[in-house]
Amino acid sequence: MSDTEIEQGTAPPEARQAAQDAPRPKGIGPLGWLRWAWRQLTTMRTALILLFLVALGSVPGSVFPQRGQAPEDVVAYLEEHKTVGPWLDRLSMFDVFAAPWFAAIYILLFVSLAGCVIPRAAKHYRSMRARPPAAPRNLKRLPQSASFETDAPAEDVLEDARKALRGKRFRVDVSGGAVAAEKGYLGETGNLVFHLALLALLFALGLGNMFGYRGNILLTEGDTFANSLSLYDQFEPGRVFSGDDLPPFTVRLEDFQAEYETEGANRGQATDFTAKVHYREDPEDAEKPYDLKVNHPLMVGGAKVYLLNHGYSPVFSVKDANGNVAFEDAVPFLPMETRNYTSEGVIKVPDAQPEQLAFYAIMWPTAVTTEDGKQIVSAFPGPLRPVVTISSFKGDVGLDDGTPQSVYKLEGLGKTLQMVKDGQKIMEPGDTFELPDGAGSVKFEGVREWASLSVNRDPGRVPALVAAILAVAGVVASFMVRRRRVWVRAAAGKGGRTVVEVGGLTLGSPTAEFDDIVAALRGPEQDGPGAGPDEGGSGAEPVDDGQGDEPGAGRDTGAADESKE
After folding, report:
1. What is the DSSP code string of 514-538?
2. CA geometry: angle 77, 78, 80, nearest 5 deg
3. What's the 3-state SS for 321-341?
4. Dist. CA 243–CA 250, nearest whole Å
5. pLDDT (tens digit per residue) in 162-172
6. β partners of residue 497
7. Which of 77, 89, 207, 560 could cross-link to 516 by cystine, CB 3.0-4.6 Å?
8. Crossing angle, helix 100-129 and helix 44-63, to 10 degrees?
9. Count of alpha carbons within 13 Å of 150, Cβ hemisphere only?
């Protein structure tokens, strides 16, 4: 039997047979898929997921060293982890906040919040300007309701209700024999302010990342720093930063002072650091003094200059084999430990003739010998008795070929640079060491101190602070204020009296504010003798549910207090 043949008696009725030429349903098309993707992206669920991903993506930036903050630590990590390190580097684990995947999450979060919050804000604005919703048909079905009778005309009752609700800062509308009132939009406003502030915070962070910069410098006492790219020891520019954007300020380190505990169990613990600097906003301006302290930055040229660290810079003068002064300067030493600031450093003398010289030195700020007399240690972080030990080298220091080197490390040891035999010496300030075989001499002149400064310009800092404050205020408002609606209906009843019905609806638990409104509408005559069950007695007690009042509710209770009097 062919595919088109159907056994007699098994075919479905003609009415149920599909049309042979009926067109198949088409897909939603590219435009439909784009609309679907946009709706999914702008949901609050997606925004929360992206916010979680941003937080999760920031974790590697705290676990692994980052090139922007500590490039030397990244190099050390790659050397120690030769297998895992390159893979982590391919995934941008050492430059997380500049990684393409982190930028993609960040941008998607920004777009998601904007597409979610901005339409909500527009809708909320229209709702605030709209009239309160009309009264429901049956007010007794609301969570809070009350009814009573009065001799006052219905028009007077509605007017009194309008005034009472106005006095409690409700938005009021009178129509159809009823008063509709509403307030509490501040709660939803606070919620929107929080999300808009979060959006502004993301924008401010992106602004700072694009147009700001951050750089570190090391200044020895007496040195001056001019705000130029070439003078930074480390510089991290923003995405669209240009070197022409650097303001022409200068900072000179006049003196660095560190204070330490001198007695007791905390002897040697730092109590205060002060870098006395002089700065100019512009090269033509006069110098201004400033005491730079930890957490007290200097504001200059639109940037903040922070005090980060400090150390020692021993001063050396070196003469070559010809007796010429080939080097005379302070050399920054890096601390080997931060308790007593034992430090190490190198001196490179490429101008020495006929052979270049180099020295490796260790400095103890307050040198003492151990109990066995075999070692020298530092007993105090302050420079009470500075001592250095010198190890001498000669040969090629490797600077002539233009290859960049670390100023804190000697290259080519044992290859192009050979140790001088008997070239070790322990020196105090003023001592001179004559190198063997007339290779030259080195003199320990004294000790200066250096300070490490961070120059940080972030144009998004102030907007981010304002956004954070608004976000906190929005959260507080969203939790403290609830939406409340009240309706009052008055109509002629039996016996010529006016029947008044009051209903209330509160987002969350009912509040006592409704009882104050009912008491104000009843008036003093409803509380006197003869009030029947339908006039405020036990048979028509307004619903309270035993709930307490919300913060700020019942601020205008003058009418209720007068009725109780």
Report:
1. HHHHHHHHH-GGGGSTT--GGGTSG
2. 65
3. CCCCEEEEEECCCEECCCCCC
4. 16
5. 999 999 889 89
6. none
7. 560
8. 140
9. 26
